Amino acid sequence: xxxxxxxxxxxxxxxxxxxxxxxxxxxxxxxxxxxxxxxxxxxxxxxxxxxxxxxxxxxxxxxxxxxxxxxxxxxxxxxxxxxxxxxxxxxxxxxxxxxxxxxxxxxxxxxxxxxxxxxxxxxxxxxxxxxxxxxxxxxxxxxxxxxxxxxxxxxxxxxxxxxxxxxxxxxxxxxxxxxxxxxxxxxxxxxxxxxxxxxxxxxxxxxxxxxxxxxxxxxxxxxxxxxxxxxxxxxxxxxxxxxxxxxxxxxxxxxxxxxxxxxxxxxxxxxxxxxxx
Length: 277
Hints:
Layout: E1 8-11, E2 14-19, E3 22-27, E4 48-51, H1 56-65, H2 68-85, H3 92-104, H4 119-125, H5 127-144, H6 151-164, H7 170-191, H8 200-218, H9 227-236, H10 238-255, H11 261-276
Antiparallel strand pairs: 1-2, 2-3, 3-4
């Protein structure tokens, strides 16, 4: 994208330009420093070009309100995420994450108690995004001398995940993780024990539930189980099977998510292994 010129400087790190009759934000460290309207934009200074044409005024006002140090932190986190995940994130995540970090790191700091009961599931389902979140916490500590709890890495992971899968918003991502957390609670209630989260069986259970729910939403095919095998599973693992039936009934009645009978067999095996681990 060559030949761009600055139409307006928002701050040292953000300028506005036009490309093919569309307004765009151009982000780069120092890209607006000592620059004037009409100056050319050096391609080597560009970190990100964001197309926000539909809500230009709204986003411009937002970016003017967010401290420059928050914008730089946001862009560094996103650049690290894109490098680590080897994928480009959506344009929207730049503003969503900046808004979140701006509230979180308000000066003077807001005394916010971060509660994220989904942290264990997020760290499993979105493992790579969670690592980005941990990297972000270390960066916040270095730049702002703020020690944030590990749960905040889960919040950041959700933003990164939603930016990675552009069809998913943060609300949808959180809702799916919350559904899985509720299902785990049902298993724990049936077995009258807290499942150990630090083992492969639990990780497989959570991952399997996530993929199964995703399949139903995408209307993808499920793996089939031989009828004789399903009968054997039902007889051998009666408690886990009944738990799986109760869970699928709950999903159907409360969430509108319908699992086929073959999925109950697979789910039974995962429940049994996680409960015995």
